[in-house]
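Form 7-S
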Amino acid sequence: MTHKASDGGVFLVYWSLTATDGTYSAQEGGKLHCTADPSASDYIAYADLTEADVLGWVYSSLIEQKEDGSDETAAEAKARIEAERTAKVQGQIDRAAANSTGVPW
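Output:
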């Protein structure tokens, strides 16, 4: 996370999510550009941030439009990203189970 030293305003958050089963893993990540406005009622300075605050920003930035035209909630965006990574791990497991290596003798 990068913030201004003068007012504690966060302007850049790097994030990553990793799904793993111990052997296989899938990762998603990115960066979130923030606009810090110390005069805004919902402003939170760097020193006062919690992990939940920042995760809320990240999940809100991942909101997509659903098939019915409505927007996901932040919780739905979080669940979608987690499910996509979990499915990638399961795909790796399935491919490994379907293939064998070695020789027949």
